């Protein structure tokens, strides 16, 4: 993987060699030269947004040493497969230049991944903000080991240091931070529950890592998880294979960052598996910090519903926020569902304000099977895509809608007809 620094006028410069044809311009074999290519973003934004450049449009360029520039501003570039990524800021122009740079930015200077003590950690500026647990976590002494688990995200920490997730609460030992097991499922004629670990029917566990990436624009990993059926007669059986891709974006702010959560799954079973309609299961679920109760946390959805009315309704996005650790402000997470997801706008499970004996603890889930069952055919790939903005302070409904619009309909960067000279 290669990183490149963007200077703000997107200038991609390519060192072109021997008679290479780039955008219908020819260069002599004896005179390799760098050209500045003009890029244009097709829509104005009001919140920071990841944008990609298709490298197939940049044939002949040296992608290891590019700068994206715009007047006196600067951004970063990061290569991922066939795309160069950058984050467009609200004050950026729609016109950029891409040109060669005399040095290569050190890889992973801002965002990086690290395996530490059984966790895959995503760092930003030296601080681990998001951790994925790949080794087994056991319940406290005296609690049945059936509640042991790997393959979940905890903690999620804001840039100012507030931990927003919780695992193994005594009221629900099977709750593990941010995770998404399926609940009421049916394999042939047998019911299997991968969510309620105490029933001993099934679980979801980490298997291995497919990749991890570091750079100045994002850090990410892809984990292979197995949904294991314990009810088979002889040995446990794999009911679902899942690749969970988690990516943390640098938004260039000290109060917010962005987290993408994409689950791609398929069943190796001959007859597939049925996800029965139920108020919990799959999608994306998060058990929030024990600090948040009925009197100090709130919900606002894209349809205008709040903590009292949101449960069971559908939404494009939902803001869940609560009191910060110091009691002087708020923090929270904006959850977004992608339009390509099943049942979008997606149904939600949000605990009632009097949940858990009246304490009003907070649990949030996008639940695509809340109202309708979902048949997963054998050897067929399915995907669910979510995005979160983890924030300190306030995040308005107008900002939430802008973030969702950029997620649902991302701006596109294309090469302009004009090429700027150096």
Q: What is the strand and helix layout of this fold?
A:
Layout: E1 3-8, E2 10-16, E3 21-22, E4 25-26, E5 33-41, E6 49-54, E7 66-70, E8 73-80, E9 83-88, E10 95-100, E11 111-116, E12 119-124, E13 127-133, E14 152-156, E15 178-179, E16 185-187, E17 190-192, E18 202-213, E19 218-229, E20 237-249, E21 256-266, E22 273-275, E23 284-287, E24 297-301, E25 314-315, E26 317-323, E27 330-337, E28 346-350, H1 355-358, E29 363-366, E30 374-376, E31 382-392, H2 397-408, E32 413-420
Parallel strand pairs: 2-10
Antiparallel strand pairs: 1-8, 2-5, 3-4, 5-10, 5-32, 6-9, 7-8, 7-10, 8-9, 11-12, 12-13, 13-14, 15-23, 16-17, 16-22, 18-19, 19-20, 20-21, 21-31, 22-30, 23-29, 24-26, 25-28, 26-27, 27-31, 28-29
> Which structural category do the helix and sheet elements fall into?
mainly beta
Q: Helical percent range? A: under 10%
What's the CATH topology label of the largest domain? Beta-galactosidase, Chain A, domain 5
Distance, first to last CA: 27 Å
| Oligomer type | single chain
CATH architecture of the largest domain: Distorted Sandwich
Largest sheet: 9 strands, mixed
Using only C-alpha atoms, the radius of gyration works out to: 23 Å
Describe it.
The protein has 422 residues and is mainly β. It has helices spanning 355-358, 397-408, and strands spanning 3-8, 10-16, 21-22, 25-26, 33-41, 49-54, 66-70, 73-80, 83-88, 95-100, 111-116, 119-124, 127-133, 152-156, 178-179, 185-187, 190-192, 202-213, 218-229, 237-249, 256-266, 273-275, 284-287, 297-301, 314-315, 317-323, 330-337, 346-350, 363-366, 374-376, 382-392, 413-420. The strands form 6 sheets. Strands 1, 2, 5, 6, 7, 8, 9, 10 and 32 form a 9-stranded mixed beta sheet that branches. The protein has an 8-stranded antiparallel beta sheet with strand order 18-19-20-21-31-27-26-24, with helices on one face. Strand 20 and strand 21 (256-266) form a beta hairpin. The radius of gyration is 23 Å and the shape is globular.
């Amino acid at each position: 993987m290669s990183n490149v620094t963007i200077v703000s006028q997107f200038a991609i410069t390519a060192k072109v060699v021997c008679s290479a044809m780039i955008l219908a311009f020819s260069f002599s074999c004896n005179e390799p030269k760098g050209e500045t290519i003009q890029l244009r973003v097709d829509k104005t934004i009001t919140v920071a947004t990841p944008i990609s450049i298709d490298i197939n449009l940049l044939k002949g360029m040296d992608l290891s040493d590019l700068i994206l520039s715009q007047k006196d501003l600067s951004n970063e570039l990061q290569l991922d497969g066939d795309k160069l990524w950058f984050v467009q800021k609200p004050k950026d122009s729609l016109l950029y230049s891409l040109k060669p740079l005399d040095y290569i930015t050190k890889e992973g200077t801002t965002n990086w991944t690290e395996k530490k003590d059984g966790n895959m950690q995503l760092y930003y500026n030296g601080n681990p903000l998001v951790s994925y647990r790949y080794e087994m976590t056991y319940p406290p002494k005296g609690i049945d080991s059936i509640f042991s688990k790997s393959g979940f995200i905890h903690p999620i920490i804001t840039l100012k240091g507030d931990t927003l997730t919780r695992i193994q609460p005594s009221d629900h030992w099977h709750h593990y931070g941010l995770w998404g097991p399926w609940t009421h499922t049916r394999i042939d004629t047998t019911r299997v529950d991968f969510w309620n670990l105490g029933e001993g029917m099934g679980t979801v566990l980490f298997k291995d890592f497919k990749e991890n990436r570091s750079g100045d624009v994002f850090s990410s990993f892809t984990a292979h998880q197995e949904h294991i059926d314990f009810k088979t007669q002889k040995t446990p059986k794999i009911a679902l294979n899942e690749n969970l891709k988690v990516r943390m974006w640098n938004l260039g702010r000290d109060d917010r960052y962005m987290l993408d959560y994409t689950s791609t799954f398929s069943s190796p079973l001959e007859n597939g598996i049925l996800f029965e309609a139920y108020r919990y299961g799959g999608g994306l679920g998060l058990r929030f910090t024990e600090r948040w109760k009925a009197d100090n946390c709130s919900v606002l959805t894209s349809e205008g519903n709040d903590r009292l009315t949101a449960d069971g309704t559908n939404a494009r996005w939902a803001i869940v926020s609560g009191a910060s650790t110091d009691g002087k402000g708020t923090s929270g997470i904006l959850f977004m569902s992608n339009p390509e997801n099943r049942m979008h706008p997606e149904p939600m499970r949000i605990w009632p304000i009097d949940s858990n004996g009246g304490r009003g603890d907070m649990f949030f889930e996008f639940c695509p099977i809340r109202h309708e069952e979902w048949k997963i055919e054998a050897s067929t790939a399915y995907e669910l895509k979510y995005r979160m903005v983890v924030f300190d302070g306030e995040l308005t409904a107008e900002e939430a809608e802008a973030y969702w619009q950029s997620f649902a309909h991302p701006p596109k960067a294309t090469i302009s007809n004009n090429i700027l000279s150096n």
